[in-house]
Design a protein that fits this description.
Layout lengths: L28 H16 L4 E3 L9 E4 L9 E20 L9 E14 L5 E7 H14 L4 H4 L2 H6 L1 H16 L2
Antiparallel strand pairs: 1-2, 2-3, 3-4, 4-5
The chain binds cobalt (II) ion.
Cobalt (II) ion binds next to α2.
C-alpha cells in the first residue's frame, strides 16, 4: 500500500511536544490513513514507537513495534496506563524528537493499559520488559512529558551540548536565519 501522507518528525523543543494531546473521537478513514503514515514515519526513522505529537498532531495516538516484526505492530488510541508494577528498571532510552541523545531512565517493569484500536475496538493488555518501556515512553508524549524530563542530572549535563544545538536549530528555523 502506498503511503499517501508523508509525515515529518517534530523535534525538541517544538511547543506541540509540550501540550497534552486530545482524545480521538472520529474513528474514520482519515484516522486509518494517519496511523499508516505514522508507521511509515516510525520505520523510516528507525524508531520502535511514535506518538502523534512527534509528527505535529495533537491526537492521542501511539504506534509501536518493539521487535521489528510486522505482526508486532501495535496501535494504541486514547490509551490510559491503569496500573504500573514490578521492579523499577534502569534502561537507556532514545527518542526520535531528540536525535543523537540517549539517557538512562527508571521505569516500573510492567504496565497495564486500556485503549482502543484504529477501528475503536477496546484493547486491554499488560506489557512488560522492553514493550512496557516503549509504551510508557510513548504515553509520556501524550502528556507532554519528554525524555529530557526523565534524565538524571548527570545525563542532562552530558547531553547539554546536543540539547542546546536542538534549541539553536529551532530558533534559527523560526526566525528563518
Ligand atoms: Co520519544
Amino acid at each position: 500500500m502506498s503511503e499517501a501522507l508523508e509525515l515529518q518528525l517534530t523535534l525538541y523543543p517544538q511547543p506541540v511536544l509540550r501540550k497534552r494531546a486530545v482524545e480521538v473521537e472520529a474513528f474514520d478513514a482519515d484516522l486509518g490513513a494517519f496511523v499508516d503514515a505514522m508507521f511509515g514515519c516510525m520505520r523510516r526513522s528507525g524508531g520502535v514507537g511514535l506518538a502523534a505529537p512527534q509528527v505535529g498532531d495533537r491526537r492521542r495516538v501511539l504506534v509501536l513495534n518493539p521487535t521489528g516484526k510486522p505482526e508486532d505492530d501495535l496501535v494504541l488510541i486514547n490509551p490510559e496506563i491503569v496500573d504500573r508494577s514490578g521492579p523499577i528498571t534502569l534502561h537507556e532510552e532514545g527518542c526520535l524528537s531528540f536525535p543523537g541523545i540517549y539517557a538512562e531512565v527508571r521505569r516500573p517493569d510492567r504496565c497495564r493499559v486500556t485503549a482502543v484500536d484504529a477501528a475503536g475496538a477496546p484493547i486491554e493488555a499488560t506489557y512488560e520488559g522492553f514493550t512496557s518501556r516503549v509504551v510508557q515512553h510513548e504515553f509520556d508524549h501524550l502528556e507532554g512529558v519528554l525524555l529530557v524530563d526523565r534524565m538524571s542530572p548527570a545525563d542532562k549535563l552530558q547531553n547539554r551540548p546536543l540539547l542546546e544545538e536542538l534549541v539553536e536549530r529551532y530558533r534559527a528555523e523560526r526566525t528563518g536565519s
